[in-house]
Amino acid sequence: MIFIHVGLHKTGTTFLQQAVYPKWKGVEYIPWPNLEIFLRLQEDKNYLVSREGFYGKNWANHTEREKSIKRLNEMFPEAKIIISFRRHAGYILSSYRQYLQRGGVLKFEEYFDIQNDSGFLKKNDFLYENKLKGICKYFKHLPFVFLHEEIRTDVEILLEDMETLVGGQAPSKSEIEFNNYNKSVGFYASKLLIKLNKLSISEFNPSGKFNLNSSGMKKFRLDPKSICQYSLGFLPSKDFITKAAQEEINSYYKDDWQLVMDAVDVRKDLDGFDANKIYTKLCTN
Question: Are residues 109 and 16 in the same domain?
Answer without folding.
Answer: yes
